[in-house]
Write a structure and sequence with these properties.
Shape: globular
Mean pLDDT: 82
Number of domains: 2
Radius of gyration: 25 Å
Number of strands: 11
Number of helices: 10
């Protein structure tokens, strides 16, 4: 029976690819950082220019025609977060000129060559930025359908790498110093909005655990189903992973974000990050991880015209959460919830799986424990 299903599935994927190629799926502008608030980075009191080399704006994937144009707009916006002004061409009065020398899109990700020249046109530095896509799927059919959002994620990530990486490049640091800009040696200096925090913040920022980088979008979606839907009615607002990335841009993009829960909690000590979350009404930050596994490895089923036999095994759900209260100077609290159940698959013509519930009870337990933390904290 499988031999008949695969060609049909491949045919469906091929038809989808042809349709998307004909429609020229665009990069969705709403996914790009310039569609949200400004970036949380220090702005330097000098001006720069940004230009693109010939052919860059024509860069495209077979199904996405406007990658180069969107990259130009996003990089110009990003540099505008760092410099007091960004000109569209080299001219007197700018401290230097950034050039997007080349862009290479492939399978949803990007490589971008960037050069910086001083006022006299002498090259200061040249480097390659890689923008990765963390919304990519392994399934080819889903990947085809996600080309637009994939490139939006990659362009956003590349811009984050550009603006956060400038202070870390020795040649760029020397260039900045020659124009009176001192960059910190011990980490980023982030710009705060200056807005007053809400007096009774009681919401949750629900983020995927940073260690799940390759599967972050899937983990973020599972976190919303597991905890967000259960907490929404009792704790508001819920700031999901995507919204938090935009509010804290560029610090939660895949190539920039801390790589562990401990590093993320430590990074939340940065005043600008805490202020941005508090202004959004957030008091608790929850870093979510985990999933469900099923192993049906006992017994057996024989199938011909009909199926006969029985198989059985187990299904296990294991979730964890690290909860950090922005209003208190206490250590983060870690918790886990696990559930296991038997799986039976009898077959008297066709297999009929009988699966015990595991995810629901595990999520209920985790949500209940987070509610207690919220209720016991000041402002809860």
């Amino acid at each position: 029976m499988r031999s008949f299903a695969c060609p049909a599935r491949l045919a469906a994927h091929a038809a989808l690819a042809i349709a998307l190629g004909a429609c020229a799926t665009p990069v969705p502008q709403g996914e790009l950082p310039q569609s949200a608030d400004g970036a949380l980075v220090e702005r330097w009191p000098i001006s720069a220019a940004m230009v693109v080399a010939p052919g860059v704006e024509e860069a495209r994937d077979p199904n996405v025609p406007d990658i180069g144009k969107q990259l130009r707009a996003t990089f110009a916006w990003g540099l505008g977060q760092r410099f007091e002004a960004v000109a569209a061409s080299s001219r007197s009065g700018v401290a230097g000129t950034f050039t997007i020398a080349a862009v290479r899109p492939a399978s949803g990700s990007l490589e971008v060559d960037v050069a910086l020249a001083d006022q006299a046109g002498h090259e200061v530095d040249r480097w390659t930025i890689r923008g990765v896509d963390w919304s990519a799927r392994k399934d080819a059919g889903t990947r085809i359908g996600m080309l637009g959002p994939n490139y939006a994620s990659a362009i956003s990530d590349a811009s984050a790498v550009l603006i956060t990486g400038l202070p870390g490049r020795p040649a760029v640091r020397r260039w900045l110093a020659s124009h009176g800009v001192d960059t910190p040696a011990d980490g980023p200096v982030l710009r705060t909005s200056g807005a007053s925090p809400l007096p009774l913040s009681r919401g949750i920022a629900l983020l995927a655990d940073p260690s799940a980088k390759a599967e972050r979008e899937a983990v973020a979606e599972r976190a919303q189903r597991c905890l967000g839907d259960r907490l929404e009615s009792t704790i508001a607002p819920i700031l999901d992973d995507r919204a938090a990335r935009r509010r804290l841009y560029p610090w939660l993009e895949p190539s920039v974000a801390p790589e562990s829960a401990a590093a993320m909690i430590d990074f939340l000590g940065e005043p600008a990050l805490r202020a941005a979350l508090t202004e959004a009404g957030v008091r608790l930050v929850v870093l979510f991880a985990g999933g469900t596994a099923m192993n049906v490895d006992k017994g057996g089923i024989l199938c011909g015209t009909v199926c006969f036999g029985v198989s059985w095994g187990t299904r296990s759900s294991s979730f964890s959460a690290v909860v950090f209260d922005l209003n208190q100077s206490t250590a983060a609290e870690s918790m886990q919830a696990q559930r296991s159940a038997d799986v039976y698959v009898p077959a008297l013509v066709v297999p009929i799986p009988m699966i015990g519930a595991t995810e629901g009870p595990a999520c209920d337990e985790l949500a209940s424990r987070i509610r207690r933390i919220a209720a016991s904290s000041p402002g809860g």
